From TrEMBL, chains A, B, C, D:
It comes from Fictibacillus nanhaiensis. InterPro entries: ArgJ-like_dom_sf (IPR016117), Peptidase_S58_DmpA (IPR005321). The lineage of its organism: Bacteria, Bacillati, Bacillota, Bacilli, Bacillales. This is P1 family peptidase. Belongs to the peptidase S58 family. Gene3D superfamilies: L-amino peptidase D-ALA esterase/amidase.
């Protein structure tokens, strides 16, 4: 099934070209998998991002995190900040299931790395979360360890968007949200580079929604007869992948710019919205065990970062819009429901372009 | 002389009401003064923001700074972060004149506080800067100490905008920029509060400029036959004043949201653009000398911050646009010049609303 | 059973007086509970610190964390930094069991707060860890949810130290380490205040150990015929409780000074040692739901912090030494063992004072 | 004149070997110069650290700063954190003269780099300070621009310590302090590396002073019949140079460990003491203008950092003691005076070893 994405509605975000699939998986080696639980009160799931095809513990990637708004429980950022590396896949799920996700990811890593806890130290799992309590009975903690493993096993280059994986029960601008992705390509000194973004969107209030500068949220809100309490208790997780050769400081500068894209969709980064960015670069593999020779880390000149800044801003904006426009209507916990943006566009005969 | 501001062009930013003068000086006690040097190669100046009418050293204000992009030389933020207070006026000027500004502000503070350096410790001046090297001969360091004192003496409630004070030689989206201001009012539990923003704008490239979602920069760029190298080596200083009772942590959360407004004018926060926010709250005075009784700091409930977040986003966006639309054409260093946005609107007969 | 602590060996750390029990529980309302698993390959456990006697979710405490060295997986610090509060007990356990501890603490909080995930958002559990892989089969993840609940239920004012709770399998300066505690009292304006520290020690190499300036580690190392590979892969968790009225900024300044005490026991804060401090003040309760009136937060004058800085430095130093001197010999995983410091003192007839 | 340093008193700090001169200038390319003003009320000066022999603006060094306690006004750290480089010499002087030092250093840089402010942007001077108000009339701002230039011109490999340069009027543990330096050497994979530290000491109270674990401050305080108000309003600037190939993240980890050395001399890092560390590595030159090929940055394996951590701790401890033991008695402002530690050792016939 081909999903209709924001570009299919005629909306083109920014100036830069997208990658082949306009997806985080345009960065070579990156794959994404989902497990979706969708039945009655249970509207939740798991999304796994695998950063490269090798053993991430043995060959770590330069990585960085950035907290836009820290009302969130993302795990693993303390060590990522200190050591500057990613050494596991990234798991996204609902807020109250991150303990389970941690346990499952630990088991997955221990199985693949018998040295951990024996001849070498520990491993630092990265788990991100948003709170899907409106549509999902989050207190029930539906996620089990095997779901996490299945999401990892499902990982591939094709990324389904919308109400899937960790996005099953999430909202975006008071409508149904969830998973979205996008990418940008650009060349520096005749070398092509890619930045890909995947979001788990769960933030915003309808009247703030903007698409390419148009205040579509206000229009929709007036068109809809009913309305919801517009209290943003959401969150967004933003995963940024790139093949640019950068230091962790440079990578941090890049991922901070995701806030630009977020802002342009209408967000004011509300108090209750945990917004965390995790970024990694596949350009250099940092060996776990000390190699014979000193590692050299190729890094672009600081002035070349501007293209990357633009890329991450544009791709974040488009990934959010993709999460919104691909999501389907969900009937969830205790009869709570949220409409799909795409259904509203039809219902009210709104053209985006 | 009444300046024509962005609202006078029919552009209304955001949902919240402005304060009486739509200015940072809507926050009671705050005043602003300029000294402008504009002749030939010398296109620079000083802008002073006085945070309250008393002795700021003896009665400090809760304050916080936030670095959006640290390609800048703002002075005083280390101590502000550690101690959480502002104890001097804030001076804005060009990059290479902050030493002079420091010296002048020190002299000003020493004169008013004979205890400093004798019976009590030192004082922490806050100096912000942008680089006006295109229109101004920044190497000549035209600013002298007396200019800083004059800017402080000139301070009043009326804020002139555009090519004045520290903004004399600054650019904004490749056009003439400089000083802009705006404010927002909102009520919490029937008490009215104000957030005011003043910007010194010196960033951005024309083709990125957006006004209320409209890609006016692209339009203008196509209309203009000539173009400039669009390399952003700019900066923006953002000063946020409020009378909200907040802790320095809460204030920091507020001022971080200025990036939302910035993003919506079209910025991607480029590498070369030093973007620093300084915020203070007039709600509580922190005594320099230890008082007899423990100080109690009234602080709003965290959930009430959302209105403040929206306010600072909107006011920052509008302050940037005000700096752009009020600025006048300047012929500066070595024949360099930049047109005024308002002149281009006329020339190409563009309506903003 | 009365344990022999460092003062019982004639060693007096610092200038300030201790609290009544020289324990973190000298801070009113604070209690501590352990569950210890000690059999063969299983040498691990859980330690719970309950910050006050009420409902911590409904009445939060001002809190702050500080990362001395981020080679660690402590959970919950992102939100603590953003919101400045502690809203759950603090759980300490081994590195690979923090997922289980998270799950158990979530269940404990959900049970006591039916609003969570229904009419209000989520809860932010604080879980700290050290890696006990030498003596404990950490890969086996022995900790089960009920252990965490039991540790919470065991909480009381009497704190057992040494090879107990989360400290069961931990090392300190290559010897057996684990749980230690200490406190300091001081008066400001005739009001008495207490700072208490609890550590989970698991760091350091023997030859670096210093007690009150004496290089006892070097002496011991020479006396011992056998030696261990002195590679520090440890960690330390430091919990700081106080009844001082402070802002979260001030609290952060206080807890940073724990590094002074740590340094004086001989640590160089090695690469592999995750060292994280969590602090809270019981002076102010921050209500979860918005109260009718604005909250006022009493805060001491900045100059009075110096006593608190000294107190936390001294108490941290003494807590580490208490963890070392109370710990008992443990035979653990695969025949690995570490001697008790107190046994070595006897064996080599060393007087500490 | 050969100064008697702490090792000449028989005190050996730590386990590692010192460099050839036990000085920051043991790091190849680093030189240090002083200008000392010492007459009556004027007891102040300037110390310049030149990081390498080339043009620091054109060939920048990887650099990092760390704020131990931010009651200080150090300039330039915002940009250093963002860009990770040092591009000027480092100037140390008294608190109220950093404006002058900025101006002088700017002039020095402009003269050597005609591109600045013309074809390239600005330059980011690094100025550190301590407050010498007890012995020096700091309000008089005695430092003039030419003093800064002279300190730069005086720079050489031989570092005079004690009451010289910026240290002329500084105190250490209530006695005369000032400039001190020390270094450590160690090998990784048969390659020798050096870490050098220079301090400007101006902190601490006598009764806290410890030398190699001995509470010499307490002894001295009892021996001295008179005493001073022991209020620490001081500061310390710590400059760390190394030739280790490190990323700025790794360098930051290294320089943070200077607090270990500081703690062992007796400091509790008091409220009023601004304590800032600036570090740089000479291993890689980062070109100002974009080079033809991507820059590769050699970086040691994370596990090899432990030696560097120990080195910076030991060298900082020894540099502080050197600043104390080399300083001479000064009669300063308004008859204020502080004795020299070395004179007290003689007077009370105290042997340090």
């Amino acid at each position: 099934m081909q999903q209709k994405r924001i570009r299919d509605f005629g909306v083109k975000i920014g100036k830069l070209d997208t990658g082949m699939n306009n997806s985080i998986t345009d960065v070579e080696g990156v794959s994404v998998g989902h497990v979706t639980l969708s039945e009655g009160n249970c509207q939740t799931g798991v999304t796994a991002i695998i950063p490269h095809e090798g053993n991430t513990f043995m060959e770590k990637l330069i990585a960085s995190s950035y907290v836009i708004n820290g009302f969130g429980k993302t795990m693993g950022t303390i060590q990522m900040k200190e050591l500057g590396v990613l050494e596991t896949p990234i798991i996204l799920t609902n807020t109250l299931s991150i303990g389970t996700a941690f346990d499952a990811l630990i088991a997955y890593m221990l199985e693949r790395n018998p040295e951990i806890g024996r001849t070498t130290g520990t491993v630092n799992p990265i788990i991100g979360e948003c709170n899907d309590m409106l549509l999902n009975d989050v207190r029930a903690q539906f996620i089990e360890k095997h779901h996490v493993v299945e999401a990892l096993q499902n990982a591939g280059k094709q990324v389904i968007e919308g109400s899937v994986g960790a996005g099953a029960g999430m909202l975006c601008y008071s409508l149904k949200g969830g998973i979205g992705t996008s990418s940008r390509c650009f060349s520096i000194d005749e070398q092509m580079y890619t930045i890909g973004v995947l979001v788990l969107s769960n933030f915003g209030i309808l009247s703030d929604l903007q698409i390419n500068g148009r205040a579509i949220g206000k229009e929709l809100k007036e068109a809809l007869l009913k309305s919801w309490e517009e209290k943003d208790k959401g969150s967004i997780m933003i995963i940024v992948a790139t093949d640019l050769p950068v230091s962790e400081r440079q990578l941090n500068r890049i991922i901070k710019r995701s806030v630009v894209g977020l802002s342009r969709t209408g967000s004011f980064i509300t108090h209750g919205s945990g917004e965390v960015v995790i970024g990694f670069s596949t350009a250099t593999k940092i060996p776990h065990f000390k190699p014979k020779h000193i590692t050299s880390i190729p890094t672009i000149h600081e002035e070349d970062l501007d293209l990357a800044f633009r890329a991450v801003g544009e791709a974040t904006e488009e990934a959010v819009l993709n999460s919104l426009v691909t999501a389907s209507h969900v009937n969830g916990r205790d009869g709570n429901e949220r409409p799909a943006f795409k259904d509203l566009l039809k219902e009210f005969n709104i053209q985006l372009a």
